[in-house]
Amino acid sequence: xxxxxxxxxxxxxxxxxxxxxxxxxxxxxxxxxxxxxxxxxxxxxxxxxxxxxxxxxxxxxxxxxxxxxxxxxxxxxxxxxxxxxxxxxxxxxxxxxxxxxxxxxxxxxxxxxxxxxxxxxxxxxxxxxxxxxxxxxxxxxxxxxxxxxxxxxxxxxxxxxxxxxxxxxxxxxxxxxxxxxxxxxxxxxxxxxxxxxxxxxxxxxxxxxxxxxxxxxxxxxxxxxxxxxxxxxxxxxxxxxxxxxxxxxxxxxxxxxxxxxxxxxxxxxxxxxxxxxxxxxxxxxxxxxxxxxxxxx
Amino acid sequence: xxxxxxxxxxxxxxxxxxxxxxxxxxxxxxxxxxxxxxxxxxxxxxxxxxxxxxxxxxxxxxxxxxxxxxxxxxxxxxxxxxxxxxxxxxxxxxxxxxxxxxxxxxxxxxxxxxxxxxxxxxxxxxxxxxxxxxxxxxxxxxxxxxxxxxxxxxxxxxxxxxxxxxxxxxxxxxxxxxxxxxxxxxxxxxxxxxxxxxxxxxxxxxxxxxxxxxxxxxxxxxxxxxxxxxxxxxxxxxxxxxxxxxxxxxxxxxxxxxxxxxxxxxxxxxxxxxxxxxxxxxxxxxxxx
Lengths: 297, 289
Description:
Chain A is mostly helical and 297 residues long. Chain A contains 15 helices and no strands. Chain B is mostly helical and 289 residues long. Chain B has one domain: MetI-like (MetI-like fold, Orthogonal Bundle). Chain B is 73% helix and 1% strand. Chain B has a two-stranded antiparallel ribbon. The relative contact order of chain B is 0.13. The chains are: A mainly alpha (297), B mainly alpha (289).
């Protein structure tokens, strides 16, 4: 009896009968079709002649074409993609830098009130960004205290890249993940570097950070997805199309006199590809972050 | 080790995070709280006390939006948990093909929300030969209006939310399942417990903490839902899919009712806090008994 093996949690035995195999294949195929099917359809559709939505399917009619992208290009899609990359590039760099700096301080707890600060940062994680959207737009249009001190010095971040970059700069999740990780870095290493005459910044960048690579991977992947996925923030910041990010611009691409919804499909595939590629490339970090964040938090 | 005396260094490292959080979280939060008690006008704000909150809690637009939000949040949460658990049980294991299926099923989670909405607007195209209706046709189901009809629009948005939410829950359930002690199953098998018994008496109790976490995450995600609805229907047809956030957006950014919009936001925030704290208390109580 003890020779029984348990490959699945339900303790089901692997069945090899043809019927069981067929049912299994059918269930798995259905799963892949339901969850990945629409996205595969999107990929196929972006490169085919899909003039109206009824032609959108996994089996395209007509041949392979780049016409949708050509038309989308005329409608400034590459500018939107560029804007998205500017925001995600600078936003992620800022977010990671801010997180590792803050985490270093919090993990070492070398000042008074570190635990209260940690609590404050955790509190921001419970605050849905939707809740502060309306007042945030007011704050962004007139950043205090400049406009209050002197109306001529008013700082308005509406319609600027900075307005989309700065608000994602500090993210509780990244700070938390980084802090937890840095607590494990032995303090002796740091002291040894100090004795060798390295300054605080030098120690940080050349001794501490290289040891944090696994955690950097997690916050990098999650930060990228988080910033790329932003919709409400660009919606309130980028008032006119010059600063639209790609997800924000999709709405304006819903129809086209030449290629119909083809232009929308071209836009959506470009909007979704970066986050899917990042996920596929860094799957391990992704799953680790997802489960650690969810189970611990 | 001697305790270090006060040093500016840790504050230097912490300053960027604190300044950014102050400007883009705490000041807006305080500003929102203040605005919720004012009638916000260019000519100067006028104190109105609780009037904005009264509007939020009694006006027909808000009460129906709150109702839709609760239905959506409950439906998406329950649907995602049930389907996510079934998916997790189906793809749990070490085999290589299972890894492929897990990855494929997980794609909706990393799909940009705006893309989810646009893809499903196309899938839901209400004509007889629209993508989803063609598939329904193979099974002899007549064409559905989906988002275009007020009787089916909310359900359609819900299905869209479950499509994105279930794989996420699946992944967290998988992590929870990995922690279940396999020896318990051998024991149970020796005792002659069948699959259903093993599921209800070993798997489910082991997953209990995971359930709480998934429930909180999914419920809050549901309450704050905005982008999917904004892009798929923006409340149409006839207000049947209007949720709290789309209504707040309209009031705040299109009708200039910033005070009422701020009050609505604070109500949403209060709901998420009550939910989180409530579930935490329940969890603690359960752990103690």
